[in-house]
Each structure stands twice: as structure tokens, then as C-alpha cells.
Amino acid sequence: MTDQTQIDRICIATLRSLSIDAVENAHSGHPGTPMGAAATAYCLWQYFLRYDPDDPEWPNRDRFVLSAGHASALLYSLLHLTSVRAMGPRYDESNREAVTLDDLKRFRQAGSRCTGHPEYRWTSGVETTTGPLGQGAGVSVGMAIAGRWLAATYNRPGFDLFNHHVYALCSDGDIMEGISAEAASLAGHLQLANLCWIYDDNRVTIEGSTDLTFTEDVAARFTAYRWKVEHVDDANDLTQLTRAYEKFRTLQDRPTLIIVRSHIGYGAPHKQDTREAHGEPLGPEEARRAKEFYGCDPDAQFHIPDGVKEHFNAHFGERGKAAHMAWKQLLTTYRSQYPDLAEQIEYMQDRRLPPDWDADLPAFPPDAKDLATRESSGTVLNAIASKVPWILGGAADLAPSTKTELKGALSGDFQAPALPTDHERSYRGRNLHFGLREHAMCAISNGMSLSKLRPYASSFLVFTDYCRAALRLSAMMEIPIIYIWTHDSISLGEDGPTHQPIAHLASLRATPGMIVLRPADANEVVEAWRVIMRQTERPVCLILSRQAVTTLDRSRYASESGVSCGAYVLADAPDGKPDVLLLGTGSEVSLCVFAYEQLKSEGINARVISMPSWELFEHQNQEYRDSVLPPKIIARVAVEEASIFGWERYAGTSGAILGMRCFGLSGPGKIVADHFGFTPGHVVVAAKEQIARHAQG
Predict the structure, then answer these.
(1) Domain check: are 430 and 288 in the same one?
(2) Of residues 375, 405, 438, 588, which has the active-site annotation?
(3) Is 438 among the catalytic positions?
């Protein structure tokens, strides 16, 4: 493509006018970036993006991530004009467009497919939920990593099953956010040449010109990250845009940043305050002037000129359909030559587990030597990974501490190739090294999961503070990320209050859609992993101890299979009628067991309840929950080395909650736990006080 043709201009103007009308009709939204970036996105979609509109989930499609999620009206207009089809059970109708004209007319209204910011699963063609700036950029790096890993693992001579590209449209805000720096640094290190960020450099944010806060040399920064930087001086110059995209497609050794100079509301010269065009509708009069400037009928609403959709279909549509058809034919031949690999791809894409995935899970007998749950988890992870080849992941520079390294035959680091011919060997590694980039790690894991891999990410529990936005989006998108958080309590010891998590369990439990699992011993860890691997639509936070904990004798106490119910009776009164309930999670369950034995020796009947997952417990029916926590027994003691917030749900308003009401203390773990009263003796005292109190009351 060289010169901008008349039909190209009409298509770009239609993208702009549809975006203007959607925002005006909603009396809400951001019209500026959709107007300014319309030509940039049009050139990419129409002439480069490989994407079958009839199957927006084709595994080898190019990915387009709208990291600038506030420009959602542009994405919805593209999805409508390219006739992307609806897929998935959340559409009431089959054989409909993902975004209809009626959907556009209901932009930002309840029930519309055109939500305020793009939402994965809700609208076909939306590759990831975006809105919090920088998240889409981080996710795109995960998608690029997945693409490289899939190619290295499954491609064979003559069978390039995976060779797609990942594009992310970023705003000034995306580039400012710290997560983009983390993600870009890692992408440059990994030489992800399949990744292209398109920076819509319009130099405006909500508060005004970026000169208020942002005067750095972005090109120099990304060059230092080892990216290739291309410049397009005019966002409406399709020749410049084409040249930049072509250069990206030929580059082999680094990701690309295309800096596209644009203007908010480009082509609407009457707009006096560009801040308004960024953050709110233009207003009726300014909308008319903008449309006139673009050559559109200023009085027509949601108008699509003749030939526009046909033009999109002739390029975007036909190119994608042909590529997809060729890919399916290639896969058929591949399946005949590599049936085992083809089967893995099918399992992966369907989020199914191989039949023997849990065949080698270990069992942990009682042992005089206690075992930290991070240790037992590392053993279980390696056993599962040997059966599920698409599990891969790592830690934010803490794999030796979190015990998340894949070892033996599974070992191998995902790294940049030393030579171009080393791609297969280097990118096939399943151990990822994220560096000290917790936030990017979680966003990258989102991108890998959206590409149907089964990633895990790990760090200390306290550092989930750095990951909050990405964790929240994992739950919002309903994708089965495995988060492994260790050093789970004040008992981690000498690192002190800066590293001892207090409010973190409560915060994770408060996140809708997130499953939190804090197993009590090694065998509960095994069952926790069974729960984790069966998830297809929920992320899980596995919370593990640094300190050694007792491996309970299951011949004396109940089976660990109760973990799948979220809470279960671990030890009970002989007649099943306890005087007091002792509730705990993680390492504190052992305190409850020791207290139970002491009370039993004194003739006091207690029940120990292990509660590894509140979320799973709440999912059980009322009859089961009442069988574990009988409503009539109000003498209760809850024990957890964390904030007491939320425990009143189970301990009751008159129950005792042995938890943390302040930050921790630096010292050996046992000394710190004793200091705050986390001892069997303290549990015994609290239990007796509860019995006495409620006997009198």
C-alpha cells in the first residue's frame, strides 16, 4: 500500500464518526483518542493484522491489545466494521456480530457489548480486559512470550503452527505507568521480536498537556531497553504507517515501538480545549464540525457509507479467512505426523487436563521432621508439570525461596537466544525469570493464560501489594492463573514487619472470583493442587509457609480430601458434640490440633476445623456448612497469623479471634509467634474462656 485511497479515507472517517456518535449518544466516554488513532488502527487491521473474523479465537491469530482502554469506542467500531462474529456462551444469540450497530448505539449502557472499557469474555474480539493503564501493555508481553514458547515447543520443520504477532496500542498514560517500564524491560531482554507496541503520542492526559509531568525522551528509553524504535510523524500518513509495520514484521532480534505523533481530536480544529476531547463527549456542535471536517454527513448518526464493510471484508476478512484455512489444513497434516503433540495442543486450547495428570502426585507420611508447605508444594508442582507440558512460570527473583523451579527433565530457562538459530532451544524453557518486577509478572501471566498456557507466578505474600491491579484483572477476566505466595505470616521471622504480611489474606479474600487456599500441611498442599488444576475460570492464590509445619497423621485425623470443600472437620469430639470449635488455616491448624489434644486430656470436647479456603467453603450448600460449623455451637476460637478482618463471619460476634491487630516484629519465627500469642497454650486458654462465657450466657 502506498497512497491513501478514497475508500481508505472513507473507512477512517467512518471509524471516527462511529466513535463520535457512540460517545455522544452515551453522554460519556473518550472521543479524542479514537479520532486521533483511527488511521493508525485502520492501517494495521486492514493491511497487516492476520485475524479470521469468523473465528476470533483461532489460536494462531495476531493479537491486538487496546492497552489504551479508554479508546474503546475505536475498538468496538473496528469490530463492527470488520464483522467479527460472536462466540461463547455469553451471547444469547448465535450467528450474530460480536458488536452490532445497536450495541454501538448503547455504548456504556447496562447490558451492552460496548462497555466503558473493553472486557474479555463479554465481547468477542476483545483479547483482554483493559482500562487501568499499563495493564494491556504488560499482558501483551505475556502473549508474546506465549507465542515464542508455543512456536519453540510445537513447531516442526515444515509446520509453523505458531508464528503470530502481538500488537498493543498504547497511550501516553500507558507509557507513564511503572508497569509498562517493567514489562518493556523484560521484553527487550527476551528479544521478543513478535511484539509491537504502537505509542499514540498525542501528548494529552486528563489534566492537560503531558508537558505538565512528562518530558522524558521515550525513544531513548526504549532504545536502552533494547527495542527497535520507529517514528511516524503524522498519524494520518498511511505510507509512513505501512513502512513502520513492514519494518516490524521483518525484525528478528528485538521488539518494536512505533511512536505515532497524533493529536487529540485530530482534524477537529474548532476544539479549543483538548482535555475535553480526551475525557468527555465533544458536544453536539463540535461533533457536527468534526464530522464536516472528516467529510461525513454532519447530521447523520451511526452512518456507514456503502462499500465500507465490503472493503474491510476484501482485505482484513479475506486475508484472515485464507490464513486460517491454510492453518487448519496444516494442523490436519501435523496431527497425522505428530499425534501426541497435536493432542497436547487440543487439551491446552480447551483448558482440559491429560487423563493421567495426577498419576504421580506424592503422599506425605507423618514424619518427626516437619516440612514447610512451600517445600511440599515445590514437589507437587514438579510432579504435575511432568504430566502437563504447558505449565510454566517462575518468580520475581525468588524461585529458590518460593520453591517454584521446575527441575530435572523439566529444567530449562526461557531466555533470549544467543544466536538466531537458537530460538527453539532457548524459548522452549519452562522456567521464567521475571526479575524484580512483581506487577509486570502478574500482568504477563495474564497474557500467557489468555494464550491458553497454564502459567504460575510467585513471590512472597507481602509483595502482592505490588501486584494488585493485575491480580484484580485475573479475577475479573476469569482466567485460571496459578499464584504461589510464600512466607505467608509473621512466622517467617527475622525479615521483620516489612516482609511479614498482615492485611494481605483479607485483601485477596475480598477479591470477587479469586480462590485463596492456605493449606495446613503437606497433604493439604497436594489436595490444594488438585483443586487448582481443575479450575478453568478462576485464578487461585496458593498461600504457603516458610517455616516447617507438622505433617498430620491422617490415621488419627480426617482425610485431607476435605480441602476441596474449603473447610472440613479435621478432629472431633468422640460423640460429635463438641463444646468448642477451633478454626484455623495454614500453619495455625497445627496449633489447634495441639490445643485439641490438650483439651481432650482434660476431658474437654473440642472440634478442629481446617479452613484452607473461605471461597470454596461458601460455595458448599448450607447443610454441609452447618455440619462443619453447627450454628448452635457459639463457643468458637479462630486462629490465623494475619489480620482478624472477616473472621467474625465464622467465629461469630462473640467468638475469640486470635490474630494480628498490628504489624509484626523482627526476630526468629518462633519467638515472634510466641510474642503475639500464637501458641497451643493460648488457644487452650481462649477455648476455655469461650466455653465458660457461653455456659454462663
Answers:
(1) no
(2) 438
(3) yes
